Amino acid sequence: MHSGDTDDSILAVLEDEALTSLAQSSGGVPSLPASNDGLEAEFFAATHKFFRMWLAEKGGPKAGVKPCAIVLSRSISQDIETLGAKRLFYFESTADAIIGGKVLIANNDLSIVAEVPFGKCLSENAVANALDRLGLANAVHCLMRGHRGEMVLCRDGLNGPTTLLKVEQASVLKLGPTEIDKQLWAFHRKFTQTSSGVLRPWKGKSENRVTIDEAELRISLMLGFYLGTVVGEDNITVEDQLPHGRLDIKISGHVMKSTLGPCAMECKVLRSKESAGTIIRNVPLGKMVDHASGGIQQAVEYRQDIGGKLAYLCCFDARLVDEDQPEVQALAKANDVTLRRYFMYTSPGEHRKAAAAAKKAGALLTCEVA
Fold it and tell me: What does the alpha-carbon distance between residue 140 and residue 40 come to, in Å, rounded to a whole number?
């Protein structure tokens, strides 16, 4: 992301320790790691919504628009003061906002946005240099490319992995089982398949196969955000409170194919190991069968609550071995729940080895969409 003359917009998350870090950081500017909760998803969704509105105002991607960096702050008032930023009022509702060449900071829903004085950024390199000199090189950010209508998600700063998303002007895609499988696989490849994915799913050394804290919540939040970029944020509800509990993701009937109605989607993480403080302990196989089976029952109840015909259980598999759970498969079939299992590799190399073995056998990876 440090090359090319494209139209950009970069966003970053500041940690709860912002007040202390601001006081202690070199030059009085923040240099903070990425947030570990679901704030990124909320921020990415708000930014995607703004950028789509901005592109519509422009009549689509436009050549020559310069880069813009937006930094997400948990302590926006203090950061505005520390960085000497100037407040931009009504920004999130201003489709004709001038963003080219600017470095901005914002809160999670873009209701408070301010411009940081740095001079005009004419290229991606200039944006990166600005973030680096402002002490924000390691922050989560989103790069908007106005000349191509694209967003690049970067959860680990300038030197981390990136994920490209095309920002469509309006949703024309109607979802059915085939389309949902395609989008779920695309999400897995970008966010959770390897240790270098956007979600960075492993805690500590990836070879330990211990997942990050609140992995299920973080995956469902980011999956909801991702699906929102496909069919529109207004058509996706995350953590929807229903009579039988909290549905991870609901896809509105408006973007589903005729007669299907809304779709219920539950997310579970399967583990062989878990951490308790500094202690790593094994998880019994039966516990994960019960965990996934509970997800089947939840999906059935949620489907009934929302009056839809489709229910999914998406299992993100962090276990030691890539293998199915026959008991869960049988339960899903008996209850007409679509079961999808996505194995998570501890490195890109491990994934490549598995992909090569599958190809040699004339097969695909588990739930892979060709």
Answer: 8
